[in-house]
């Protein structure tokens, strides 16, 4: 590891600098980041569609039997726009969004210190922490409960799913608040490799480390909120572009269905990927402020150089 020459300069940054640096990171490593995120995004994209696409297709099937200019079509088309599908999909992606970091956090940690790694190595390193991730992220941060609620929506009649959607909205609110208060759970688990339970008196548990790193710095919630706002802007811009294309060049009805079914979640996942990079850079900034990471890295670099000189002297 290149402790004395990291690829991302280790120094304090302001919020707008972190946003700008995130774009530079994406521009520099687009393929590696895209592959690391796509491995996680693709299964979730198709799983969500499998669970809730019937909410949209129910109305779509009805519109195929009526004339496009008839009042019945206009009513059915309005129902599509107001369909519970939109609310459910937005809630699911918001709940699941952090898992886009499962591989990208490990990749970014290696990029910082100039470590080259294959996709298979990233997957193996993440799988080594599967148990901690499943409990701390999957269960406590709402992903598994959210999928169970979506499964409830999938198996119920399309007229009686309102209570499930209400429960999903409550889970989403809980997840967003928790994410604002303690955003760095993936970095603590995957980079610091903090255990869930103590194996010795010297070890720090995940909960204690999380409390320490998030209480030590004021303004973390504000930075997370800034990232969320930027993600909303990105999602809205992408969706707006798709809708403009649909209404201008092709059949409005069929393409609007496509935009809702695929364009909406894809846009949200792309925004989630950007937000995961911003969060990682925020984590670096907190470590620098809290632990004097700049000085620590210089000390580690000198230690590595001394070790190399000693080894050369023994040859």
Structural overview:
By secondary structure, this protein is mainly alpha-helical. Helix 2 runs antiparallel to helix 6, helix 6 crosses helix 7 and helix 9 packs antiparallel against helix 10. The chain has one domain (15-314). It is globular and about 70 Å long. The longest helix has 40 residues, at 252-291. It has 15 helices and no strands.
List the helices and strands and how they pair.
Blueprint: H1 15-28, H2 30-52, H3 54-63, H4 71-81, H5 84-96, H6 101-112, H7 119-127, H8 130-139, H9 143-155, H10 162-181, H11 185-190, H12 206-215, H13 220-249, H14 252-291, H15 293-314
Helix pairs in contact: 1-14, 2-5, 2-6, 2-9, 2-14, 3-4, 5-9, 5-10, 5-14, 6-7, 6-14, 9-10, 13-14
Overall tally of structural domains? 1
Structural class: mainly alpha
* Relative helix content: over 70%
Q: Which range does the strand content fall in?
A: under 5%
The number of helical segments is 15
Mean of the pLDDT scores? 79
Order of helices and strands: HHHHHHHHHHHHHHH
Gross geometry: globular
Major β-sheet annotation? none
Number of strands: 0
Short description:
The chain is mostly helical and 315 residues long.
Quick tags:
0% strand; 77% helix; globular; mainly alpha; 315 residues
């Amino acid at each position: 590891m290149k402790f004395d020459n990291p690829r991302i300069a280790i120094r304090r940054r302001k919020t707008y600098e972190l946003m700008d640096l995130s774009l530079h990171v994406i521009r520099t490593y687009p393929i590696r980041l895209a592959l690391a995120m796509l491995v996680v995004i693709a299964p979730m994209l198709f799983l969500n569609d499998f669970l809730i696409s019937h909410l949209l297709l129910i109305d779509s099937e009805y519109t195929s039997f009526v004339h496009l200019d008839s009042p019945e079509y206009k009513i059915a088309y309005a129902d599509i726009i107001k369909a519970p599908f939109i609310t459910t999909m937005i809630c699911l992606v918001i709940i699941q969004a952090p898992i886009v970091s499962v591989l990208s956090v490990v990749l970014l940690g290696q990029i910082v210190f100039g470590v080259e790694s294959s996709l298979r190595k990233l997957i193996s390193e993440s799988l080594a922490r599967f148990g901690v991730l499943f409990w701390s992220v999957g269960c406590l941060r709402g992903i598994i409960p959210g999928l169970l609620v979506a499964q409830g929506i999938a198996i119920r009649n399309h007229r009686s799913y309102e209570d499930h959607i209400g429960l999903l909205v409550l889970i989403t609110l809980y997840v967003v608040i928790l994410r604002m208060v303690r955003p760095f759970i993936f970095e603590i688990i995957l980079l610091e490799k903090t255990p869930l339970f103590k194996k010795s008196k010297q070890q720090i548990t995940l909960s204690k480390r999380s409390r320490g790193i998030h209480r030590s710095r004021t303004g973390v919630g504000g930075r997370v909120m800034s990232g969320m706002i930027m993600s909303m802007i990105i999602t809205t811009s992408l969706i707006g572009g798709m809708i403009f294309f649909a209404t201008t060049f092709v059949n409005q009805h069929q393409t609007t269905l496509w935009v809702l079914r695929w364009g909406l979640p894809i846009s949200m996942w792309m925004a989630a990927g950007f937000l995961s990079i911003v969060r990682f850079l925020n984590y670096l900034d907190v470590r620098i402020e809290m632990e004097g990471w700049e000085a620590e890295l210089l000390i580690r670099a000198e230690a590595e150089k001394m070790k190399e000189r000693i080894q050369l002297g023994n040859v």
